[in-house]
DNA sequence: ATAGACCCTGACACCAGTGTCAGGGTCAAC
DNA sequence: GTTGACCCTGACACTGGTGTCAGGGTCTAT
């Protein structure tokens, strides 16, 4: 099948399919006219790529084990677990950081609300301007 | 003071100080030789900028109310609350997404571990398959 | 007067995948 | 034989703060 058809079948844009190819994730043969020709199996390959991208892996990381998981069960691909582990650590780090920011933000919001309850509307109205 | 001194006092790189200026966050005067000359108050300004950047605000967003919070209490600056609110929503969205990814990742890791425990290669227990 | 520390502007690189445009080729149907 | 759908490559933009380099000016102490 040609690239447009694969794009429709997978919901991935033509642009992205070409990008995946440039990253070594999928290698269609070329017809005499230069068009990419994909095997029907390419649909599964692209779905697999989508799955890993949704797990937060990069195309480069996926390239390291994609051909293994397409052939075998994931559990047989030694590269996968360490990658998952480090990715999980990274995500936990980000979660922690975001949570921290969220707490700070909520704290400041609560503090502003408290302060506004204490002050009269006219104090708010005459709040000054400008100045560096 | 000159830019290098301000950088040392605040722990912010010279590069970043120039960037903040380009974003309209701080406006040092210029000496005859073209050097930036910062008032001692600039230290506080930069600390304030750091604080807001750490809350996940962008320099553009900070530019919208920095004037005001430097002059008044934060609670008097009308621009701040809506910004905090939308930023909080955004962070909650990201937290949700990351949490989802984390769950999927953990699910797949558990599935791999299960499969490896039954590690007779021909034992095709269909325990964990395709988390999407 | 010269070394060395400090300052200036401008510009590219980075992350990473996707959109989009330009400029041009191929193919099938009518 | 022309129209229109589809394909090709190459390249820029975007997000946004920071590092870093190039190429050059200024200041101070020796």
Automatic annotation (TrEMBL), chains A, B:
InterPro entries: DNA-bd_dom_put_sf, MerR-type_HTH_dom, MerR_fam. The keyword Transcription applies. It comes from the Bacteria. Keywords: Coiled coil, DNA-binding, Transcription, Transcription regulation. Gene3D superfamilies: 1.10.1660.10. Residues 81-115 form a coiled coil. This is DNA-binding transcriptional MerR regulator. Transmembrane segments: none annotated. The keyword DNA-binding applies. SUPFAM superfamilies: Putative DNA-binding domain (SSF46955). One of its GO terms (molecular function) is DNA binding. SMART domains: HTH_MERR (SM00422). Residues 1-68 form the HTH merR-type domain. Signal peptide: none annotated. It comes from Paenibacillus forsythiae.
């Amino acid at each position: 099948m040609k690239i447009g058809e694969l794009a429709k079948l997978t919901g991935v844009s033509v642009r992205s399919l070409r990008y995946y190819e440039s990253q070594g994730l999928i290698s269609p043969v070329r017809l005499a006219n230069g068009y990419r020709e994909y095997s029907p199996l390419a649909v599964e390959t692209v779905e697999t790529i989508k799955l890993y991208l949704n797990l937060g892996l990069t195309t480069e990381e996926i390239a390291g084990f994609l051909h293994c998981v397409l052939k075998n069960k994931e559990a047989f691909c030694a590269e996968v677990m360490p990658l998952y582990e480090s990715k999980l650590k990274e995500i936990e780090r980000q979660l922690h950081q975001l949570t921290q920011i969220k707490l700070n933000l909520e704290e400041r919001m609560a503090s502003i609300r408290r302060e506004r309850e204490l002050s009269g509307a006219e104090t708010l109205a005459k709040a000054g301007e400008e100045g560096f």
